[in-house]
Amino acid sequence: MSSKTITPRLVGLDLAVGSDKSAVIRELAGRVVAEGRATDADALFEDAWAREQKDETGLPGGIAIPHAKSVAVTVPSLAFARLKPGVDFGASDGPADLVFLIAAPADAAEAHLAVLSKLARSLMLDEFTAGLRAATSAEEVVALVDEAIGESEAGAESAAEPARAADVADVADDSPEASGDPASGTATPTGLLIDGRPARIVAVTSCATGIAHTFMAADALTAAGKSAGIDLVVEPQGSSGYQALPQSVIDAADAVIFANDVDVREEARFAGKPVVRTGVKSGIEKPRELIAEAVAVAADPNGARVQASSGSTPSAAPQDASWGRKIQRILLTGVSYMIPFVAGGGLLIAISFLPFLGGYGIALAHGTDGVNNAVYTLQHYAIWNLPPEGLGYYLGAIAFEIGSVSLGFLVPALAGYIAFAIADRPGIAPGFVAGAIAVFMNAGFLGGLIGGLLAGFAAWLIGRPAVPRWLRGLMPVVIIPLGASIIASGLMLLILGAPIAWLMTQLTGFLNSLTGAGAIALGVILGLMMCFDLGGPINKVAYAFAVAGLAQQTDASFQIMAAVMIAGMVPPLGMALASTVLYRRGFTQVERENGAAAWLLGASFISEGAIPFAAADPLRVIPANLVGGAVAGGLAMAFGVESRAPHGGVFVFFAIDPIWGFLLALAAGTVVTALVVVALKRFAAPRRAATLAAEDAADTSAEPALV
After folding, report:
1. Are residues 259 and 282 in contact, defined by beta-carbon separation less than 8 angstroms?
2. pLDDT digit string (tens) for 510-543?
3. Which candidate in 67, 112, 213, 647 is catalytic?
4. 531 carries an active-site annotation
5. Could you tell me the maximum CA-CA distance found in the chain, to the nearest angstrom?
6. Domain 168-299, CATH class in plain words
7. Which is catalytic among the residues 112, 207, 531, 647?
8. Which of 287, 600, 640, 677 has the most neighbouring CB atoms within 10 Å?
9. What CATH number has the domain spanning 8-157?
């Protein structure tokens, strides 16, 4: 699968899909799924349609940009349709003939979202839209878009985004062009002067997804301010992050424009400023009118003023989302931030066990000193005074200790970033403190989870009330962290910590006691969870459960980690075996190419390598994955396979014991998955040869001989 944001198969030229915009969105969502970049076309459509229902995405000039952040999306993507005839997306000047569907994962990285925002800015340029209308092939459209978003060689050279509205350096106070100085050649209309000088205005733009409208409104306002000869600076608050305006710039402003569909982040910075509030689309469609209105409200003593609370705006899910979805998002945020601590620490511990370094003995207790061999070595020896075992042993002790300290952050990091997901930055400190208290109370992973929720909601509630302006600066750095730490950690120490610690002790004892059928059953359950949604919430829960257990450093925790890793490797390897070796004619050319890549992805423990297959044929692929994952997980437990590394697949073989059990369980699960999917494709409502031939013919690559 291409790493580019847009490919020729995501482009449709001169499509006739009727007059219903929902049909256009469905068509484009289907293309994203067919290209293996999303798992569920219906889910992607629903998320994009929900965004469309909140605010139509049609823009002047025959453009529409439906967009969504969706859990169904696995690769940030652009799908494009040039419509003939156009379809009404709600723009004031009529139907749209150029439609981009912007599809971003729910947890998309900042870099990916920044790429998608570049497209939105390019749509403001007449030469770009003219090129799209004149294009004669999908490849030509892809080339135009690649250049616009910086994914071509030419685009990469200009990837600095020349008109970035958030860059304060472009609008310095002493800039003639920004201030409307006559020397710049830009005259300032009399109505935009305040006290005989050009007006100074700051603006904030943001939309529900923070991808498209946010940056288009920012650029429209910036261009209108420059044209009017006034000093106007914009802070786009997009999903790809935002650069806060310097407080000195805000303090010097005469008025502020809030063109937002969601809450303004850190609104207290603008407290007391004359304000114009509107939707983000108004910032795109009528920036000049908004500027004139802002100047008017600045001159009106009774005009609206910013009355912001001192609290931080929590990075919560949309207000109409269910509580279940909100809690799920909060917990997955904590897990995603926690995993780097665990992955790095776990791999360092695994490296320390290499035979030419410390070996497994580095973790054993040293006599009656109450410490392990690694700590004893570091306490009594140095690089210039090596232990009798030599340099390798000393380096192994260093790797083990760094890894152990890193793993020690597991619970505090989980709690801290759960609180961050609820209350933004003011929640981090009380979350970490609550997590550390959970460790102190031996409440473990579950204690960190509950402590993080308590700290986050406490910080959010403390930051809600309005407070005097002189107190606002202390709220996020002193009052909120102090109050939330006292509430969350106090509850953990006084009430919740002991029961949770007891529960964790019972759970740990139960897992350590599992043998025979009980251990195998646990392996089967973990295997099913790892293979059900391939990197989704259920997969993440199983993985988080396993990596959290590594901190216990017990045989049971190592076996659970091995079962999870082996089962997670099975889906891509099984699909690779089926599509490239056993039953090539049952897969399209694109699927066979994905299968070739899935060998490496599976070997590296990247379950997402099977997503293109599951998206194209879920009713056959997902059951096959489940059967193979259950077999692999059960066998891993039956063989007593242990993994001291939290990731890496076959490439961390040195941290796996016994290696023969690892390979046998992995091979069995892979073969079972491949055989089941082949059987289902051949005998359970098989796809006709004509259908596969048509799909192959649509592909532009050469057709290899079929087995």
Report:
1. yes
2. 665 656 677 888 888 888 888 887 766 677 777 7
3. 67
4. no
5. 86
6. alpha beta
7. 207
8. 677
9. 3.40.930.10
